[in-house]
Amino acid sequence: MKKNPFFVSSKIENPDFLLLMKEKKVNSIPIISNSKVIGIKGLQGEVNTEYENPVLLMAGGYGQRLRPLTEDCPKPMLKVGQKPMMEILLNRFKKSGFKNFYISTLYKSEVIEEHFGNGENFGVSIKYLNEPEPLGTGGALGLIPKECKNFPMIICNADILTKVNFEDLLKFHKKNKAAATIGIRRYQFEIPYGVVQGNEETLISIEEKPLKTYFVNAGIYVLNESVVRSVKKNQRVDLPDLLKQEITNKNKALVFPIHEYWLDIGRLEDFKKAQIDINTISFNEL
């Protein structure tokens, strides 16, 4: 029996149990409320594997669709709940076992660097890729230093709120020996009118308010080193163009469907939705 056991109060919001277990060298932590044990957080279900694979968070955008919120703050640093959205994303990667990060910056990069520093306060390593000018969604890859190892690399937009399993994504890419993998999300929308098809004056069909389904780019990628190194320094290129290049070269490019929660915070409506979603029960671990 320990007279002074280590525990975590239920009043503490979103504690990093994995980091605490490592610091205290324990395999489980009791959760206390009103001097009673209400739960135990153990290594089961937590990260058992650490990945050396680098992760690139793309945070260089101007966030123009979220003005005026982004006039003095880069979009990835806007708070969702109590934390900047990019910190939430970084913590998701960290809890999946990833610790080596690059962050590409352009607009108000000093705000990002001041908050995250070298990553030491977050239990990770962070290096910055400062774009001299807008290089497209894939141009930052040309700034990856030559000493970067342990590919494949995961690339992710920094303005995404998601519970996707990054470990499964990486394992899928490696198991299938892909050159490039893109995360995709099912997207549906209803056309609010009756859709008519005709041949000159002849009516062929009419469908009232049809529901259309597409798969859209989720802003999450896994790329082998050959794909990353194909981008030259300060070259302007978009990631979809790199994927098209792999298809043209007959290299294996795959899609990874994302069934978990996913939200691209690009518009004010999305930002408002994120403020609601972050407080739901399913996001207690974010």
What is this structure's SSE topology?
Elements: E1 8-9, H1 17-24, E2 28-33, E3 36-42, E4 55-58, E5 79-80, E6 83-84, H2 85-95, E7 100-105, H3 109-116, E8 125-130, E9 153-157, E10 160-162, H4 166-175, E11 180-190, E12 194-199, E13 202-208, E14 211-223, H5 225-228, H6 239-248, E15 253-257, E16 262-264, H7 268-277
Parallel strand pairs: 1-2, 4-7, 4-9, 7-8, 11-15
Antiparallel strand pairs: 2-3, 5-6, 9-14, 10-16, 11-14, 12-13
Question: Can you characterise this structure?
Answer:
- With 286 residues, this protein is α/β, with parallel strands linked by helices.
- Helices cover 21% and strands 31% of the residues.
- The strands form 5 sheets. Strands 8-7-4-9-14-11-15 form a 7-stranded mixed beta sheet. A 3-stranded mixed beta sheet has the order 1-2-3.
- A hairpin with a 2-residue loop joins strand 12 and strand 13.
- The chain is globular and about 90 Å long.
Mean pLDDT: 88
Strand order of the largest sheet: 8-7-4-9-14-11-15
Strand content: 25-35%
Number of strands: 16
Which features characterize this protein?
286 residues, alpha/beta
Give the gist of this structure:
The protein is α/β, with parallel strands linked by helices. The protein contains 7 helices and 16 strands.
